[in-house]
Amino acid sequence: MMMNPSVIAIVDLSIPLVSGIIVLADFPPRKRFRKNAARYIKNRFGGIVLRVCILMGSPRLDGNTAELCKPFVAELLLHEAEIEYIELHGKDIAPCLGCYRCQDVADEYGCVRQDDMQTIVGSILKADVLVFATPIYTWQATPPVKAVMDRMYGLNKFYGSAPRSVLNDGQAYALIATCGCDLDYGAGLLDEALRRWCAHSGLPYIGMYAVRDEDNLASFQTVQAVAGARDFARKILEYKKES
Ligand SMILES: Cc1cc2nc3c(=O)[nH]c(=O)nc-3n(C[C@H](O)[C@H](O)[C@H](O)COP(=O)(O)O)c2cc1C
What we know:
Elements lengths: L6 E6 L7 E4 L15 E4 L8 E6 L7 H15 L3 E6 L29 H10 L2 E7 L7 H9 L4 E2 L7 E2 L5 E8 L3 H19 L3 E8 L10 H20 L1
Parallel strand pairs: 4-5, 4-6, 6-9, 9-10
Antiparallel strand pairs: 1-2, 1-3, 3-5, 7-8
Helix pairs in contact: 1-5
The structure holds flavin mononucleotide.
């Protein structure tokens, strides 16, 4: 492995034989890594301060939202966080059936649907902070992000015979959004949805970092956009310190 300080290792959990290295400038990972659902990116010292799971919901894997994630991830890595960056587009994530059977299964996720969400839930449960990174589509998260949110119903045992519990208790949620409209008008509804969801589940909501798409990728490469993403990463690291 190259011993360059800007090089970070990927440990692939879904297919152990497929692992490699990427440079930060290459983030999100190059296409040859994309066939894998889950990647752990470890800092070069091997230490773990905070586990962050990022669910990236844009179908444009090198688009605006992914671009905004780059400085965010870079800042987290500087502070020795462990990051799992999951591209949801193309994953098999069926919609929630509303069957409520997960509510009768104690201490486990309990969803009857056997698809990629089973693996994604495993990743979610390992994280201290869960970040939804999504472009706004029709004032909401994109379809795979919304499907994941609905399918997370089984983490809250509130409505069935299972003893009341929150399987991801203590985890904090955060939102990174990109949108074409004014930020509050474009992304405000999703921000509020996460705020209410967290209040409902008794989880901390760190908040939203959003940037407006005015000039495609260039809007997310400005000094202001990059500094904001790094600030947001530091805010997330603060959560860990306070908890
Ligand atoms: C189908 C679709 C729906 C959209 N709906 C909204 C919207 O409701 N509000 C908004 O502000 N921007 C909307 N946009 C703009 C995107 O949110 C914006 O361009 C975003 O930065 C795209 O990110 P991406 O490159 O990561 O996919 C929409 C874009 C598409 C393709």
